[in-house]
Amino acid sequence: MKNVKIIEVKSELGAGTRGASLGIDALKIACLDAGSDYFKRFNSIEVPNDNHVLFDKNLFPFAKHIDSILVTLKSISSTIAQTFEFNMFPLVLAADHSNAAGTIAGIKAAHPDKRLGVIWIDAHSDIHSPYTTPSGNMHGMSLAIALNEDNKDCKINDLDPESRFFWRSVKKVGVEGPKFSYDDLIYIMVRSYEVPEDYLMKKHNIKNYHFDEFNQKGAENIANEALARLKDCDLIYISFDVDSLDSKFSKGTGTPVETGLTVEQAKELCACLVKDPRVCCFEMVEINPTLDTENTMAENAFEILEATTNSLVERLGKVEKVSA
C-alpha cells in the first residue's frame, strides 16, 4: 500500500542485552511462517546504524554510546520527517526503545506547530536521564530525551562535561526543547520503574493504565478513554514495546515483566488506537530473538503488527476514497 512506509531501525546501542538488532529479521521470518505477504505489501527503508561501535570501549558510563546514539537519532528523525513530506504514514519497526526519541523528534520536526500526544505501551516508564540511571542504558531514557527532562531533583550520577554536551545534544534533535508535554503522555501497562521515575510520574500525575484497570474495562474501552484524554492533541504517536505483554508471551525481549497484556488484548488495543485519524505514527520495539529459541516472541509480535496494520490500512483507505 502506497501510503504506509515501513521504517526499519536496527540500532541496538541503547539496550542492555544484545540481540534486538535481529528483531526485524525475526518478524520477517514469523511473517513467512504465517504464510503472509505483509512485507511485500509496503515500501520500506532501513535507517543506517552504528552497531559496530558495540565492539569498542564505551566512554560514557551513565549514557552508554550516547555519541553514536546521537547520530542514529538524527538519522531516524530526518527519515521520519521526510516520510511525512511524502504524505505517508511511518510504521516504525525498531530494535531498542531509545530509537523512539528519534521518531518523536522527526514527528515534531515535520509538525512543529502541532500538539503531540504520546501513548506509551510498555512495561517500563523509560523516563530516566543520565543523572538518575542505575544502568546507563539509553533505552530507559527515550521519553526523558523527548521531554527535555534531566530530573536533577533525583540526581545520583555526576556527569563529565562531554557526557553533558551529548545529553544536551540528543535533546535538541528535531527541534529544541520538549517535543510534547507531560499532560499529553499516557502509559499503558507500565509496571517496572525506579524511584526517580516514580517521582516524575507522581509529580506530573501521568495516567497509567495498570493490569487490573485494563482487565476490568477491556481493550476497546481503554483505547477510547486514552484517546479521549488526548482530546486537545492534534497528532498522536503510539509506541508499543513487546515487553508490555505478560512475560509468558514475551520471553524474547531484553526485560520481560510479569502481569502484562495477552497477545489478544494487545491486538485489540493497538487496532482500536490506530483507527483514530490523529494517530500519525506507530512503532514496535524490543524483539530479541537471541533470547527465544522458538521465535515465539516475533510470532506473537507479528500477529499484533498485522492486526494493527490492517486496522490502519482500513482507516487510510476510507480517507483515500473520500479524497477521490
UniProtKB/TrEMBL annotation:
Q: What are the GO MF terms of this UniProt record?
A: arginase activity
Q: Which PROSITE patterns match?
A: ARGINASE_2
Q: Which cofactor does it need?
A: Mn(2+)
Q: Which InterPro entries match?
A: Arginase, Ureohydrolase, Ureohydrolase_dom_sf
Q: Which Gene3D superfamilies does UniProt cross-reference here?
A: Ureohydrolase domain
Supply the alphabetized keyword list: Arginine metabolism, Hydrolase, Manganese, Metal-binding
- E.C. no: 3.5.3.1
Keyword Signal carried by entry:
no
Cite the Pfam families for this sequence.
Arginase (PF00491)
Q: In which pathway is this protein known to take part?
A: Nitrogen metabolism; urea cycle; L-ornithine and urea from L-arginine: step 1/1
Concerning its family, UniProt says:
Belongs to the arginase family.
**Protein name per the record:** Arginase
